[in-house]
Structures are given as structure tokens and as C-alpha cells.
Design brief:
The complex is a heterodimer. Chain A is α+β, with helices and mostly antiparallel strands. Chain A has helices spanning about 1-5, 40-45, 140-145, 145-155, 160-165; strands at about 25, 30-35, 50-55, 60-65, 70-85, 90-95, 100-105, 110-125, 130-135, 175. Chain A has 5 helices and 10 strands; from the N terminus they run H-E-E-H-E-E-E-E-E-E-E-H-H-H-E. In chain A, a hairpin with a 3-residue loop joins strand 1 (about 25) and strand 2. The radius of gyration of chain A is 18 Å and the shape is globular. Chain B is α+β, with helices and mostly antiparallel strands. In chain B, strand 1 and strand 2 (about 25-30) form a beta hairpin. In chain B, helix 4 (about 235-245) crosses helix 5. Chain B is globular. Classes of the chains: A alpha+beta, B alpha+beta. At the A-B interface, strand 4, strand 5, strand 6, strand 8 and strand 9 of A face strand 4, strand 6, strand 8, strand 11 and strand 13 of B.
């Protein structure tokens, strides 16, 4: 009976097509996720993948993976990647170039910022339904907290806490600061 | 697969007391020795937190799921669940205060809902939940949460972290706690043994040397400490850019000078929108009352 399940299973999915992107910003880039929902075989493998494109100087929101390690492979261009551990120490602050790999352990916080060449990467994740939590932006952990809490934990005024919480209206991919509309073909 | 080889060949069990205490401005964290054979065998670790009145536990998350038992006291907790909307909306306290002042100055009555209130709500956040004595609280792995003691007595919580849970892909016997604020020290760090820590730092040092050899000079001078939050290790400028705020505020996020520990005191009390709190007896009475009053009605 294997032919009913494994033998005929769909084994591939293209994640490079811009039209398939799950997150898209004309000024910042795009992100496509492949997990067991859109490729069911991944639930057997307990793995998933993500393809990302950051345009010139754009930033992927600081975030952490809740339930997976992430192995990032540089496909094109270069980006400055910063990774921070549980003690708040920087464990990686360097450029990742085409052909290089960096491993982001589960829960370690990471920021990617493309250089002026832009950056494309593919991430392999060690969970079939990997989740990440952003730390800045419209759907971030900071947005989930009351302003009063933010003000007290960071020892800032309520106005500053309000600014910190609401300044970024994007969700995952941030356009570079002080940069006008830059549509990329 | 819960325990490694020989970890469960236990000849004798003993009652265990916490082996480490971490005092913070607004409370105490007591930690049981996660290296003890009993804990290593069962694949869990346990801590107990005592949050003083007006104490606020800084937001944090761990790589394994937690079960929390509220041993004493009352409080509130906010979870930051990825993808969930900010369903609690309010006027900020300042706005409410200003509104109150305006009303006072006018000497008149409160103006109707329709007048001047549009676009006034200043804050939105995710649901806030009450913590009551006797509650068990389930916390999924990686979900950040904070807690605040708004009661009249210390809030005591016993927390079990399931490090051997499949959700945890980091160390199986030493839980890692990631803070989103403050400069707290790691709860289990001292118990890991100095050699382990030294090895980790050596590895990090080698990694940095490796980067420097590759021409990728570390831009931030490699902050190395056993305390801090997840923002501390980022470059301040990049952080400011990510949040769209000034570098001054970004430095506050990094909190390198913050010595309050993982539980801080909120002097004027925390005023947030939360659902009304009802005691168990009140809820029971209410549900009994509604059953008898409405009988067969839908």
C-alpha cells in the first residue's frame, strides 16, 4: 500500500516564484514559506524551508524561531546578520555572502539587513511547521504588550513607549530608513 | 528517549530544596538543581518565583513548554502569542487623565460617546489573563509572557519546564530563558559548572577570531556577559532602525545599565485593560443563578 501514500506523494514545490510569496513589500522584499501545510511530505521529514529576498538596505524584522533551528544559506548578494544568544551576547555579527551558511539555533534572536546589493537566502528549518515571532513591527511581541508595561520594563516615558510600539507599521520586512519608494523589477 | 543512558539508575530518592536564589528588585527566583539525577532522569527542571506586591516579571520565554502552578496570591499575565491580534483596546492612562482634567475644567458632565472620542484609543495589546491561587497555567514553548502582582500578598508560582519535550531543540537538561527586557542573569547558569561556561566562551572566542580572520571584523566589540536580554547583543543603530526610534530609546531596550533583576517594581501600580476578576465562588454562584433564572431559555 505504499504507492497510496509515499510513492505518489508530492515531493517538490517551487518557492522562488515571486507570485507565490507569502509576505511581499515593494520596498523591502518578499518571503515564501514551505511547510507541511503546503507540502505534506514535510510532516514525515519534520523539516520546512523558507525563501527570502531583501531589497537594497532593507531589514528583516528582529525575530526568533519558536520551535526550530534555522540554517541560512546565502543565495545571492550579501547581508549583515546579527545573532544573539540567551545571555544577550552577540554570537554572530558579520556579513553572509552567496554560498555561505550560518546556523541560527532555536530561540536565538536574529536581524538581517541587506547590503546595497540586496540579499537572497534560503533557510532550512528543523520543524515541519516552524514559527517565528517578530520583536519589532505591527505583529511583534512588543505590540502585544500594554504601553504601561513597555514603559516600566524599559524605564522610558509613556510617549517613548508609544513610539517604540507603534513606529513600525510593517510586519516582517522593513523598508530602509529615509528611503523613498523603490520598486524592484 | 526522555533520559540519557544511566541517568535513571536511581538507588535512592530524596526530597529536594531549591539550590539557588536570585534576588531581584521586585521578587525572588528560587531554582532547583537541574543537574540533579532525579531531574535529569525525568527531563524537567523546576523554579519557584515570588513576585512582591506591584512586582512585574520581565517578559521572557523558554525553549521548552512550561506548566505554572499559582501557589499563592493574585496577579495578571500577558502572553505574546505570534499571529494573535491585539484584542484589548483602551485609552492610555494619560489620555484618560487628560480627559478627566478637561471634564473637570469644563465643570460639566461627561460628553457623549460620539463627541470627540473618535481615534482616541491609544493602546492595543493582546489578551491579559488573571492568575489566581490554585490555577495551573500552560505556557507553550517559545511564547513570551510577563506577569504582574496586583494583589495584596506575594504572588508565588511554581514553574515546571519540560526540557525533554520535543519542542525543545536546545540543551535537554539546562533550560535557556530568553528575556525581552532588563539585564537579568540566567537562572540555571551557575549550576552548569564553570568549565561548561568557559568552554562556551572559548568557543565563542574562537568563532569571533575565525570571523576576524575572514576579514569580518566584529563591529560591536563582542559583548560577552552572562546577563542581558535579546536586544543587548544587537548593534544599537540597527536596532533603532528596526524599531524606527532614536538610538537613545534603542539603548534603553538593551538595558545594559539596568540592575533591577528579572522582577521589577512598578511604583505607581500598573494600569492596563483587563477582564474583570471574579472569584471562583462568585463565578459558581453566577452560573447557578443564571441556570435557575433562565431555566429552559436559550
Amino acid at each position: 500500500g505504499l504507492e497510496e501514500t509515499i510513492c505518489s506523494a508530492r515531493l517538490s514545490e517551487n518557492i522562488d516564484r515571486p507570485s507565490e510569496a507569502d509576505v511581499y513589500s515593494p520596498e523591502a522584499g518578499r518571503l515564501t514559506t514551505l511547510n507541511s501545510f503546503n507540502l505534506p511530505i514535510l510532516s514525515f521529514l519534520r523539516l520546512s524551508a523558507e525563501k527570502g529576498v531583501l531589497y537594497r538596505n532593507a531589514i528583516m524584522a528582529p525575530h526568533y524561531n519558536l520551535n526550530a533551528h534555522s540554517i541560512i544559506y546565502g543565495v545571492r548578494g550579501r547581508a549583515r546578520i546579527q545573532i544573539v544568544n540567551a545571555q544577550g551576547n552577540s554570537v554572530f555579527d558579520d556579513e553572509l555572502r552567496q554560498g555561505q551558511i550560518v546556523v541560527v539555533p532555536q530561540n536565538f534572536a536574529v536581524i538581517k539587513q541587506a547590503t546595497k546589493e540586496g540579499f537572497e537566502w534560503v533557510s532550512f528549518k528543523t520543524c515541519e511547521n516552524a514559527l517565528f515571532q517578530t520583536l519589532a513591527g505591527r505583529t511583534s511581541a512588543i505590540r502585544a504588550m500594554p504601553v504601561e508595561v513597555i514603559s516600566n520594563i524599559y524605564q522610558i516615558s509613556r510617549e517613548q513607549a508609544h513610539r517604540l510600539k507603534f513606529s513600525r507599521s510593517e510586519t516582517t520586512l522593513f523598508r530602509p530608513e529615509n528611503q523613498g519608494y523603490q520598486r524592484r523589477e | 528517549g526522555r533520559a540519557r543512558e544511566n541517568e535513571c539508575q536511581i538507588d535512592r530518592l530524596t526530597a529536594l530544596e531549591p539550590s539557588n536564589r536570585i534576588q531581584a528588585e521586585g521578587g525572588l527566583t528560587e531554582v532547583w538543581d537541574c543537574q540533579d539525577q532525579q531531574f535529569r532522569c525525568s527531563g524537567v527542571t523546576v523554579i519557584r518565583r515570588t513576585i512582591e506586591r506591584n512586582g512585574l516579571l520581565l517578559p521572557s520565554f523558554t525553549s521548552g513548554p512550561e506548566l505554572i502552578y499559582i501557589e499563592q496570591g493574585n496577579g495578571i499575565s500577558g502572553l505574546m502569542i505570534p499571529g494573535c491580534p491585539e484584542t484589548f483596546e483602551s485609552l492610555s492612562t494619560q489620555e484618560a487623565w487628560r480627559e478627566g482634567m478637561e471634564r473637570g475644567m469644563r465643570g460639566g458632565r461627561f460628553q457623549g460617546q460620539g463627541q470627540g472620542r473618535q481615534g482616541r484609543f491609544q493602546d492595543q495589546h493582546q489578551k491579559i489573563r488573571h492568575l489566581r491561587q490554585g490555577d495551573i497555567f500552560a505556557m507553550p514553548a517559545g511564547v513570551a509572557h510577563w506577569a504582574y502582582n496586583n494583589g495584596d500578598e506575594p504572588l508565588v508560582a511554581v514553574i515546571l519546564i519540560d526540557t525533554s519535550n520535543h519542542a525543545n531543540q536546545l540543551d535537554k537538561d539546562v533550560p535557556r530563558r530568553f528575556y525581552l527586557a532588563g539585564n537579568p542573569e540566567q537562572e540555571h547558569e551557575q549550576q552548569q559548572g564553570r568549565h561548561h561556561q568557559r568552554r562556551e566562551f572559548q568557543e565563542q572566542g574562537q568563532q569571533q577570531q575565525h570571523h576576524q580572520r575572514r576579514g569580518g571584523e566584529s563591529r560591536r566589540g563582542g559583548r560577552q556577559s552572562d546577563s542581558g536580554n535579546v536586544f543587548s547583543g544587537f548593534d544599537t543603530r540597527t536596532l533603532a532602525q528596526s524599531f524606527g526610534v532614536s538610538e537613545e530609546i534603542a539603548q534603553r531596550l538593551q538595558a545594559e545599565q539596568d540592575e533591577r533583576g528579572n522582577i521589577v517594581l512598578v511604583q505607581e501600580g500598573l494600569h492596563v485593560v483587563k477582564p474583570p476578576s471574579r472569584s471562583y465562588e462568585e463565578r459558581e454562584e453566577r452560573s447557578r443563578g443564571s441556570r435557575s433564572r433562565y431555566g429552559s431559555m436559550n
